[in-house]
């Protein structure tokens, strides 16, 4: 080695700042003994992943469950005041207010007479929409042609016991219908005959008096929607269907609380696990600690080094764990709800901060224990 | 010698053993609590789902067609046939009586109401509010307060043996009446006990004790329909089959499962001349919601088990890793790999047993607290959970220690004693 070379090395070392040495120590600590560092990092990653998955689920699952609850059908209903029909543009106004965040189905009713002289309720509606809103309707064949009707189980016995075509009369106007399919719900629908809205209007001339709606969103959002609808339709009485709304609020509330309690328990356990592993890891490196002190490093310098190391471990673990946790949450969403759980970046800062806090906490405990010990005793191996 | 080593290890390293023990206890406690909650949540949520109201409807078999729009029946009230009120307690005599949480009979009639502002036609529904009934030795209370939990009353609920009534809130506004005043219904004065708000057709009606409606109709034992609220099992392929096509063995299995269909069948058997039908909106949807929530809790429980297994293994690994020196000494004195490993495994098992028992009770307490604060009811802890949890604790502790023990055993005693870890 020439003196030229030697000077350049000295130069380089003199001009490089302390951070590069600090960084080198950080990196080398992990590189030289990968096993221990890896096991500490693994604990960190797993804990961060579980925490991320739980937080993500907790935030997202409510929206998912709310969607499930919409299978109960309408939660809001608009009825013309005192039994009057709704204005002709009511449905388009309602759709404007809902704006894609819900569904609306119109219903018009008249009492018609069957050939036998019995009264039967005939309803006009939009079958395509009903199929989506009232998914519990048990229908064998949905009507799709002219003069085809959907007949309730009980109405069937009155109007068409053998499944033959039948006539209905309303205000001296008759309509000839063919029973396309039967409907079973176990409620009032079983006693009715359903027609497509256009055909119903042409026959009876009666406009829809009821619009049933499934409005998505939190209870506050639904209430705001109801308020808007009431303003848009002054001639209608818009109210929530309490049976549906209260049931949903209650079941959702309980599920949320259970999930919250579980999430807290799981995150605590994971944090505890990291704490135990990291404490062991730092404790294990008491020799490094002693050597640094023997070489003249100050308490603050050593403390800062270990803290930085723990923080770096926490940060790397948090980022890796976040990615895995998002994956777990997405998998749970797919398995349980058949829908993807959207990754929530808003969770990241919490996971990040939490991981670093736990890592630092895990470093501080063994550090304060080691501070009291003379380096010579540790190096002697006692 | 082995026993003494074991004993001394626990006696001398109290602090270290305590730390590992605490980690296992906590892990087991979380696992116990989560399993207990997950196994019981189906039942708990099922009960909460009953907030949606009755899932079964019993009507007379030979009933005429309902002419009903928006909950207002346009059919003459005396038309059609009726069920007998005296048959009602038999509902509690069916096979699945414990699953039937409540039932309410309904009898709608037309009345004219009169007060100082004039007269008006309205419908009156007779029902039970919270009626005490007996069947055999069983005493139970049932009525709309159980089956229609979303009904809200301003004022008081009427007593079932009184002639007080509830006035729907729309009707009350139209009549300018309030609770406590007197209302003339078909010439008879009735006290308004409270104003009823349901968000449904009852807001325009009068709801009265069943006997009041029967007096108006002039049929002392009549009931038009019965709403039944029952805890059911989600529908599956067997539930949907027609019981007439089943062989006796299959029929027994169907009959003894709390499907909504089989409960409907049993209600039909119990009440003469009746037809029971599931209310599909309520009955069909609760299965989906229930299975979603149960699935979610199952997956969350898996995550909890995983996290607690990890915590236990981490604690064990750390505890054993710290004892390499001891291993070195034992090996230097001539102990074989097997003897060393056996000692460590014995220690782990003992630790897992103690900590597992402590963790089980801590976890039971935790589950109890969760049940109390969230569901206002006890979470039942199946006794079979105890051996299961202990087995899990031991297996997890074993698995957690195995890697660390293997490494400790393979370590060269010379290096271990010199302290070159």
Can you give a write-up of this model?
The complex is a heterodimer of chains A (382) and B (421). Chain A is α+β, with helices and mostly antiparallel strands and 382 residues long. Chain A folds into 2 domains: 19-67 and 251-380, no CATH class; 75-240, no CATH class. Chain A has helices at residues 3-15, 18-32, 34-69, 90-98, 127-133, 153-159, 197-204, 219-232, 242-284, 286-294, 299-337, 348-371, 375-380, and strands spanning 76-80, 102-114, 119-125, 138-139, 148-152, 166-170, 173-184, 192-196, 210-215, 236-240. In chain A, strands 2-3-8-5-7-6 form a 6-stranded mixed barrel, surrounded by 4 helices. The model of chain A has no long low-confidence stretch (mean pLDDT 84). Chain B is α+β, with helices and mostly antiparallel strands and 421 residues long. Helices cover 50% and strands 20% of the residues of chain B. In chain B, a hairpin with a 2-residue loop joins strand 2 (68-69) and strand 3. The two termini of chain B are 28 Å apart. The chains are: A alpha+beta (382), B alpha+beta (421). The interface between A and B is large, with 77 and 74 residues.
